[in-house]
Structures are given as C-alpha cells and as structure tokens.
Design a protein that fits this description.
This protein is α+β, with helices and mostly antiparallel strands. The protein is built from 11 helices and 12 strands. A hairpin with a 2-residue loop joins strand 8 and strand 9. Helix content is about 30%, strand content about 20%. The strands form 3 sheets. It has a 5-stranded antiparallel beta sheet. Helix 1 packs across helix 11 and helix 4 packs antiparallel against helix 5.
Length: about 350
Amino acid sequence: MKIVVLAGGISSERDVSLSSGGMIYHAFRKNGHQAILLDVYLGLEGDTEGIFERETDWAARVGAVGEDCPDLEAVKALRKDGGSGFFGPNVLEICREADCVFLALHGASGEDGRIQACFDLLGIPYTGADFVGSCLAMDKGITKDLFLAHQIPTPSGFRLKKGEREQEEISWPCIVKTCCGGSSIGVCIARDEKEYGKAKEEAFRYGDEVIVEQYIKGREFSVGVMAGKALPVIEMAPKEGFYDYRNKYQAGTTVETCPALIPGEKAGEMQNIAERVFTALRLKNYARMDFVMNDRGEVFCLEANTLPGMTATSLLPQEAAAAGMDFGQLCEAILRQAVPAGAE
C-alpha cells in the first residue's frame, strides 16, 4: 500500500511526533509497504512524481526527543514561504495520492480535529479518531464535562480563562494544566498560592484557557483501546517527580510495568472505564486513557489521547506487546481499521 506517515508540525510536541513517525515509517517499510515520512509543516519542495517508488530513507533526519520542547520559531524559519498556512509544500497533493495517511501528529492542529476535518472534506483516509472525537478529547474542559455526564470517575476541577478570576475555592495541592495540550507540557503541581500563580503563568504560555483540578496522589496507569477493546494495563512509576515530559520520553527515567502488578479486579475496572471513555468521547480506531489510583484503591480517569505516542518509550506499543502484538503488527492493525474496503 502507499502510505504517508504524517508527522512534525508546529506544536510543542513536534519532536515526539517525528520520533513516533520515524518508528511507524520503518515498520511499514519493513512490512513491504510503499511508505514515506512527511513533515506536515515543512512539506516537500520540488517534483513529487513517483514519490512512493523512490528509494529514500525518509526518516534519516529524524532525531531523538530532547529533554525540552523544540524551538518552534527556528522550525518556522525553515519555510521558504514564510510559514503561510499549516500545510507545507505538496503535503495535501501527496496525501491525496496515498491509500491511507497514518497520523503520527501530536498536539495542536494534528490532534484537535482540524486536520481530520480537512481530510474528510478532501476524501483522504486517515488513522485515529475523526474530527468530532479528536476535538472532544483534545479540550480537557469538554472531556471533563463528558466524564461527569457519563459517570466516569475523574478529579474535580474547573476551567479558567486568561484574565478571569477563580469562582471556586481551591484546595492544596492542585494541578494546573493547559486546556488543550499534551505530553504533560504546561502541567504543574501547586501546593500554595505562590506556586499556584507560577503554575498558571506556565500553563497560560501554551493557551488562553487552563484546567485547575484536584491533585490525586497515587500510582499512575494507562490503558490503550483498539476498536473499542481495552489492552492490558500499564503502570508508570517515575524515579523522580511525576510523569512529566522528561519522564515520558527520556529512557531510564521511569519504570514501566505491563501488565501492571495490581489485582485483577482493579485492572478490569480500569479497562472497563477506558472502554466507556472511548464510547463517551466518540472515538474510533485507537486511543489511550490515563489514570491515577489513590492509596484507597479509588481510580480516576485523567484524560484521553486520540493519537498516542509511538516512540521507543511509548506506552501503547508496550501494552500491545503484552497482548502478543509486536510494533509492526500494531501499526498494521491500526492501518487496517482505517483503510477503505478494496484499497489494498
């Protein structure tokens, strides 16, 4: 099949996206597909005729995920047209030639439903949730509202726009996070008023609306869902701090155990909630839900990820492996759910 693995972009999760895309690209090439890896923002200059037949290592310039967010202004400076529009040169034209686009994008524009809506209008098949599910899951405020409406246990909290005053009482400690971010970027724990002010300042760097919610101290877990069915539960135990950007993507910073060493009924409870979240947010294809369990054994769902990371340290591939599916098989399973009948 002709496959475009679409990655990069200009969100704070650009590096993670490129790393995910590189692994997915290599898996498809190994499986015999005519795959290319394309940066959605930088695109491809020049002649694109016969692009899927070229013997090119499209992942050669993809580096490892750094400890900090990428310099997006430096990325924007690479566009010869000055960065006019989200799609780089020839991106849409190449995607329309593919049998399917594997979305390896993370964060704004890639995971919030806008690119999905564009592809729907152009008739381009793609992996992951559609524009409705992507939009609902990306906005943590909307997600929280839907969790409450569907009786899905989640920490209490409220939304706050830049410049607004809090209308609800805050209990310490609390979590402050950007409303539409990912990879734990812009997430802080505040233990008093001073830390709270700094946490808001940090979160507002990434958007005009934040979520302030109850801090649940406990063990952290994640559950992937494919085609509505939950995968084994994985536990993430950072050696220091909480499961932030560094602990997610730097090897050796977090101990990950899959299947998680918890009682079977607790694993089953999380899997059941993950499947309910998948339905409540109208998700499709695959997704991953994040959880925390306090010392009383109470489980809380934090959020849903509609395009989970597929890097060397990512959680979904580890969960799939525990279910007997290697990385290449995982990519194929996601692809097969997305391609139209008769496209092979």
